[in-house]
Specification:
single chain; about 500 residues; alpha/beta; Rossmann fold; N-(1-d-carboxylethyl)-l-norvaline Dehydrogenase, domain 2; oxidoreductase; branched-chain amino acid biosynthesis
Length: about 500
């Protein structure tokens, strides 16, 4: 079980409490009106070094630069000769004004270092990074992977620096897109969690909150670095990525077997999940999606949910065990050593994903079906992840964001625009490895256990659905929806 005794003090931002179910959590609401407080939050920080130009590094460097203006210099640090140098220059960072440089030089010169390189690189390079940090500086992470790796090998962070985390609950492209799209809408952006792992300067909390506000987070909630990596790694291996991948592949085959054309099978599976189902959950929650169905649709939803939930619960528990045991972290580190020889292939040449390209090209949004069977399967697996994280004591804000909000407000809209296969082939290495490992498990168990239970002559056991309508998640999502920005992400 995780420790639920979380609270924080800030001298810069306005802390408030929200009630989620039977718990009270402290948060900070974001907004561009708070940018004027950022110099105070970063008091003593003359330079923030953003190390890495992956999806998070590029998005966060640009958001921070745009929010901070001339008050704090934001400098990007990359490996000597990195192919990303030109991309950073194109975004306005350059060597001549000191906003682009070699990573270790940037680390040594920065008062706050945001380490946003790939997880496998973190495992390889952390000693050199730590050696380059000056005492009294702040080390920032956007993922708890490094803590998990250090714990496994019996190492730790330097004791003379702050260690904080700000973890946006969305992919890097969403972090940048919503910030830009919401330029005229106060509070538009991606939610984030924050954690203070070490506070040696006494400024760690305000710097973490300032970082989150500067990224454009509509609201920032508290977690621990340990809790974050358990929920984040588990979530992307479950419903956020691997789960949705396995769900739609299993449904596509099922609908084809039932006689639907390739085009219609894709519309009733992947298009339905990433389109109307995700949109309804985003605005109205899982219970709102269920209530939107007619009487016959609710019966179909209930049976599909009841059959899919046990599969989701079993697999999410297994995934969680693999993450907290260190097996998933070890697997990522070992894969990092193999990838030069055995690079990951793409999945988008498979028939289903080729069909998907044609479907998206001919898409009429108003004609995408809200399939109640698809909705029930998706929500059953999603709620199973929620219940797993509740059982292991994670904060409700973290559970809602890692299981629902990140999916329907960040990841699924990208999948809707470009395809589930695109997401699986273009996300972080850690997530791509997880999707390839766990998606087949969701696919197989749904196909082998959930769907036969529905197709048998016996009534489906609805025990799991009996808890659905009164579930605490619905109240949690309603409160979170009040903090949601009015801007929906647009993916061109």
């Amino acid at each position: 079980m995780q420790d639920q005794t979380l609270d924080f003090e800030t001298s810069v931002f306005d802390k408030e409490y929200i009630t989620l179910g039977d718990r009270r959590e402290a948060i900070v609401r974001g907004g561009r009106h708070l940018f004027e407080r950022l110099p105070q939050a970063f008091d003593g920080v003359r330079q923030i070094g953003v190390i890495g130009w992956g999806p998070q590094g590029s998005a966060q460097a640009q958001n921070l630069r745009d929010s901070l203006g001339n008050t704090v210099r934001v400098t990007v640090g990359l490996r000597e000769g990195s192919s990303s140098m030109q991309e950073a220059r194109a975004a306005g960072f350059c060597e001549q004004d000191g906003t682009l440089g070699e990573m270790y030089e940037v680390i040594a010169a920065s008062d706050m270092v945001l380490l946003l390189i790939a997880d496998s690189a973190l495992a390889t390079l952390y000693e050199q990074v730590f050696a380059a940090l000056r005492p009294g500086t702040t080390l920032g992470l956007s993922h708890g992977f490094l803590l998990g790796h250090l714990s496994q090998i019996g190492a730790g962070f330097p004791t003379d620096v702050d260690v904080i985390a700000v973890c946006p609950k969305g992919m890097g492209a969403s972090v940048r897109a919503l910030y830009v799209q919401g330029a005229d809408v106060n509070g538009a952006g991606i939610n984030a969690s924050f954690a203070v792992h070490q506070d040696r300067t006494g400024h760690a909390t305000d710097r973490a909150l300032g970082w989150s506000v500067a990224l454009g987070a509509p609201y920032t909630f508290q977690t621990t670095l340990h809790s974050e990596y358990l929920s984040d790694l588990s979530g992307e291996r479950a419903v956020l990525l691997a789960g949705v991948h396995g769900i739609v592949e299993s449904l596509y085959r099922r609908y084809r077997d039932q006689g639907l054309s390739e085009h219609d099978a894709f519309r009733h599976s992947a298009e339905s999940v990433t389109g109307p189902i995700s949109s309804l959950i985003s605005k109205s929650g899982l219970d709102g999606l269920y209530r939107s169905l007619d009487a016959d649709g609710r019966e179909v939803f209930a049976d599909a949910y009841s059959a899919a939930y046990p599969v989701g619960l079993e697999l999410t528990h297994e995934i969680y065990d693999e993450v907290r045991s260190g097996n998933e972290i070890s697997g990522v580190v070992m894969a990092g050593r193999r990838l030069a020889r055995f690079p990951m292939g793409k999945i988008d040449d498979a028939t289903m994903w080729q069909v998907g390209q044609k479907v998206r090209a001919d898409r009429v949004p108003s004609e995408i079906p809200l399939d109640p069977f698809t909705a029930g399967v998706f929500c059953g697996v999603m709620m199973a992840q929620v219940d797993t994280l509740i059982e292991f004591g994670h904060p409700y804000s973290e559970i809602a964001n890692e299981s629902v909000i990140e999916a329907v407000d960040s990841l699924n809209p990208y999948m809707h625009a470009r395809g589930v296969a695109y997401m699986v082939d273009n996300c972080s290495t850690t997530a791509r490895l997880g999707a390839r490992k766990w998606a087949p498990r969701f696919d197989y168990l749904l196909t082998q256990q959930a769907y036969p239970a529905i197709d048998s002559k016996e009534p489906v056991d609805r025990t799991s659905f009996d808890a659905f309508e009164g579930h605490v998640l619905h109240d949690v999502l309603r409160v979170c929806a009040e903090l949601r920005p009015s801007v929906d992400i647009y993916v061109g």
